[in-house]
Amino acid sequence: MTELEKGPTGRRRGRGARERIISASQQLFREQGINRTGMDQLCAAAQVSKRTAYQHFTGKDELVAEYLRRFDPSVLPGVFDRTDLTPYERLLAAFDIPPTTPLCPYIAAAVELHDPQHPASQYARDYKEAVAARLADTAREAGAANPEQLGEQLALLIDGAAARTRVLNADAFPTAAAIAAVLIDNAIPATASDDRRREEVSS
User: pLDDT tens for residues 30-43?
Assistant: First the structure.
């Protein structure tokens, strides 16, 4: 076996090639964007030939779709699956996002692709709908009178804060969290709010 037949650590290039291609796409797509990243660059970063890349993916469109599919399939488990927080606290925790966090890959992909029929666009829609649904479910647990409406409002705030943080290079999430707290308190009947406050005092 010649050196040219070996991968980055001496393995045959075909072994693990798919994961290396996906790993390279996760880095390059987020760092410089989808449109600015070509297959030649991806193959060089993954240390595979273009022939090998096209054996795993029919083209860049399929790779972009797989790149998005790999992100957070369980929808923010670090927020919604926390058992140490009340439902009210989980709603606010959704806004506890460091300003250095890269722009949501689903938003970035949708903006770049400009094609609602692209498979990656469908992943983006599904994910954004899933986030709103998880917010609505949590709002329902918190006692919101109209949980679906509150879920959509909070989802819009999160995406807006993410985009504004990126454009202005300034953290917009504290302001979004303050607005979210007002929306949540207004959406939850007084009796549910009183119960929530009692839970927070006793915890």
Answer: 889 999 999 999 99
The residue whose two tokens read 């929530």 is 196
**Secondary structure class of 8 (helix, strand, coil):** coil
What is the rounded (10 degree) CA torsion for 192, 194, 195, 196? 90
**How many Cα neighbours within 13 Å face the side chain of 55?**
13
Q: 40-64: b or e for each residue (b if 16 or more CB lie within 10 Å)?
A: eebbebbbbeeebbbebbeebeebb
Longest CA–CA separation in the chain, Å: 74
Closest C-alpha to 90, from 136, 129, 157: 136
Interatomic CA distance for residues 12 and 53, integer angstroms: 14
pTM score of the predicted model: 0.77
Structure tokens at 122: 């469908």
pLDDT of 83-127, one tens digit each? 999 999 999 999 998 888 888 888 889 889 888 888 888 889 999
